[in-house]
């Protein structure tokens, strides 16, 4: 979708980068089918990421922490932030941007334990990471944490 958008919008005048403008631009420049495909792909990507996140959280809670949360409560907790954002009337582009910022700060809380756990032979058995893989994981986690700290410091007065 990004490649199609770049090709369609290149040289087509000003584009403010909003989701609504992208949809309108697809409809105007490529046709209603492209606009519908854009909306469907955007919806599908949101649903798939939500599903993966929900399933990953369930595996962690059940498998590692041995904590079982009733399905209704789990879904209510997962949906609460989105429903609050909708209820507050936050513009979709702002909500998308804020969600990505919040998610970027959650990555270190996943990466660091992943690197620490996957290097332990007593937990991983034969699937333990090799030292080079662990080193690359530490470098990646440090880089991502550093970028997050930099962005936080550069945008917060």
TrEMBL record:
GO CC terms, sorted: plasma membrane
Signal peptide start-end: none
Main subcellular location of this protein, as a coarse class: membrane
GO molecular function, one term: manganese ion transmembrane transporter activity
Keyword annotations from UniProtKB, A to Z: Membrane, Transmembrane, Transmembrane helix, Transport
Protein topology in the membrane: Multi-pass membrane protein
Membrane-traversing stretches: 30-52, 72-90, 96-116, 128-151
Biological processes annotated in GO: iron ion transmembrane transport
Compartmental location: Membrane
Stored NCBIfam families: Nramp_1 (NF037982)
Name by which UniProt lists this protein: Uncharacterized protein
């Amino acid at each position: 979708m990004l490649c199609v958008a770049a090709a369609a919008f290149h040289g087509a005048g000003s584009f403010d980068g909003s989701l609504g403008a992208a949809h309108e631009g697809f409809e105007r420049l490529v046709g209603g089918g492209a606009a519908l495909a854009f909306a469907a792909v955007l919806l599908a990507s949101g649903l798939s990421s939500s599903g993966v996140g929900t399933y990953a959280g369930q595996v962690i809670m059940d498998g590692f922490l041995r904590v079982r949360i009733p399905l209704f409560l789990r879904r209510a907790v997962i949906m609460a932030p989105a429903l609050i954002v909708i209820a507050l009337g936050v513009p979709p582009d702002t909500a998308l941007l804020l969600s990505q910022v919040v998610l970027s700060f959650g990555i270190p809380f996943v990466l660091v334990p992943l690197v620490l756990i996957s290097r332990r032979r007593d937990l991983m058995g034969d699937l333990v990471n090799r030292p080079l893989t662990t080193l690359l994981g530490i470098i990646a986690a440090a880089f991502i944490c550093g970028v997050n700290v930099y962005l936080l410091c550069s945008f917060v007065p």
